[in-house]
Write a structure and sequence with these properties.
With 368 residues, the protein is an alpha/beta fold. It has 13 helices and eight strands. The chain folds into two domains: 250 residues, TIM Barrel, CATH 3.20.20; 87 residues, Chorismate Mutase Domain, subunit A (Up-down Bundle). The longest helix has 36 residues. Bound molecules: phosphoenolpyruvate and manganese (II) ion.
Length: 368
C-alpha cells in the first residue's frame, strides 16, 4: 500500500472505495444515489459533471450547474465528493465548489497539452489546488504517456497523486469494453512504488456482471482500491447504463470481495509471472472467441451460397502458413499443428451447427 492518506480519515492500509454515477444527471438522482451509498458506508462519492464523448450528440454532462449538487451531497452525507476535470476552467470551478478529489479521464491523460493546462491550473490555485488528483491511464496502452501525465501533476506541487487503471481501447468486439492489460498497471506500480493505484472495473468490463470478478482480480493483484459506477436506477442512466449497478449491489459486491492485505508486497517473481500468464490466457480465450465469431460468419456465407463446410485446400494452406510462422518463434511444428487442428475442429463444429439451422449456435451473448 502507499504511504499517505488520500483524504483525511481514509486509512492507507484499507482499499479506497469511490462510487457514484457515471454522470450527475439531476439533483434528485445524485442525492438519491449518494444517500444510499453513504448508508452503506461509502466515503468518497463520484459523479461526472463534464463528460467527454467519443461522438457529438451524446450526453455531455450537465456542466457546472451540477457542482452545487455535489456540494449538497458533501454537506448532507459527509462523503467526500469527486469529479473529472479536463480543462483549466473545470479545475477552477471545481475547486471553487469545494470538490475534494479530482480525476483526469482517459481521453485527457492521452494529451500532454491538456495535462499541462490542468497541472498549471492546479499550481496557480496555490494551497487550494493541493487536492488529491487521480490520473486515469490514457486510452492507448502507453505506460510512458501515463507516467508523463502523472509527473505533470506531481511537478505542479500536488502532494497526493494517484492513478486509476481503466483498461485500454482495442478495435473490434471483445469480452471487455477496455482491455485490462494488467501488466501495464503492474509495471506502473514498479516504476512508481508509492503511487496509489486504483482499479476501475466499470470501464474495463463495460458490463455489470464483470464488476465483481474484475474487482477481485484487482484486489488479488494488490491494487489500492476501486472506483465503481453506481446509480439509483441504472437502467435509466443517461451514460454507461450497462455497467452501472445499484448501491445495494455495490454493497453486496464489497462484502463478497476478499481483500488481500500485503498482495503488493508479496509480489514474488513467480507470483508476478503467474499473473502475466493469467492475463495472457484471458487474451487467448478472447482472441479464439473472435476467431470463432468470424468463422460463424463464414458458416452463414457458405450456407447461403451452397458451399461445403470443409474445404481441404484452405485447411492445408492454414496449417502450412501458420506452422511456418510459428517456427520463427521457436515453437515446435507438431505443437502448432495440434493447436490449429483443435481450433479448426471447433470451427467446423460451429459451422455445422449453422448448417443444421441454429443460425447463432453459441448465441451472440458469448460475444460482445
Ligand atoms: C468516467 O469515469 O466516467 C469516464 C469517462 O472514464 P474514462 O475516462 O475512463 O473513460
Ligand atoms: Mn462512465
Amino acid at each position: 500500500m502507499y504511504n499517505f492518506e488520500i483524504l483525511p480519515g481514509l486509512d492507507p492500509k484499507e482499499p479506497v472505495i469511490i462510487s457514484g454515477p457515471c454522470s450527475a444527471e439531476s439533483e434528485e438522482t445524485v442525492l438519491h444515489t449518494a444517500r444510499q451509498l453513504a448508508g452503506y458506508g461509502v466515503k468518497v462519492f463520484r459523479a461526472g459533471i463534464w463528460k467527454p464523448r467519443t461522438k457529438p450528440g451524446g450526453f455531455e454532462g450537465v456542466g457546472s450547474i451540477g457542482l452545487p449538487w455535489l456540494a449538497r451531497v458533501k454537506q448532507e452525507t459527509g462523503m467526500y465528493v469527486s469529479t473529472e476535470v479536463a480543462t483549466r476552467a473545470h479545475v477552477e470551478v471545481a475547486l471553487e465548489a469545494g470538490i475534494d478529489l479530482l480525476w483526469i479521464g482517459a481521453r485527457t491523460s492521452a494529451n500532454p497539452f491538456a495535462m499541462q493546462e490542468i497541472a498549471d491550473a492546479l499550481k496557480s490555485a496555490g494551497a487550494k489546488g493541493d487536492v488529491p488528483v487521480l490520473v486515469k491511464n490514457p486510452v492507448n496502452p502507453d505506460l510512458e504517456l501515463w507516467i508523463g501525465a502523472i509527473q505533470r501533476i506531481q511537478n505542479a506541487g500536488i502532494s497526493r497523486v494517484g492513478a486509476i487503471h481503466r483498461g485500454f481501447s482495442a478495435y473490434g468486439k471483445h469480452l471487455y469494453r477496455n482491455m485490462p492489460q494488467w501488466s501495464i498497471a503492474l509495471d506502473l506500480g514498479r516504476r512508481m512504488p508509492n503511487l496509489p493505484i486504483i482499479c476501475d472495473p466499470s470501464h474495463i468490463g463495460g458490463k455489470r456482471e464483470l464488476i465483481m470478478p474484475l474487482s477481485q482480480q484487482a484486489y488479488d493483484m494488490g491494487f489500492d482500491g476501486l472506483i465503481i459506477e453506481s446509480h439509483c436506477n441504472p437502467d435509466c442512466a443517461w451514460s454507461d447504463k450497462d455497467q452501472q449497478i445499484t448501491p445495494e449491489v455495490l454493497n453486496l459486491i464489497l462484502h463478497t470481495l476478499v481483500p488481500r492485505h500485503g498482495a503488493k508486497e508479496s509480489t514474488e517473481p513467480l507470483a508476478l509471472l503467474r499473473r502475466q500468464i493469467d492475463q495472457i490466457d484471458g487474451e487467448l480465450i478472447d482472441t479464439l472467441n473472435r476467431r470463432m465469431e468470424v468463422s460463424r460468419q463464414i458458416g452463414q456465407y457458405k450456407k447461403a451460397h451452397g458451399l461445403s463446410v470443409v474445404q481441404s485446400s484452405r485447411y492445408d494452406e492454414i496449417i502450412r502458413s501458420r506452422c511456418q510462422q510459428a517456427a520463427h518463434t521457436g515453437m515446435g511444428e507438431e505443437f502448432m499443428r495440434k493447436v490449429l487442428s483443435a481450433v479448426h475442429e471447433e470451427s467446423v463444429r460451429q459451422q455445422l451447427e449453422i448448417f443444421k439451422g441454429k443460425d447463432n449456435p453459441e448465441s451472440s451473448t458469448v460475444q460482445k
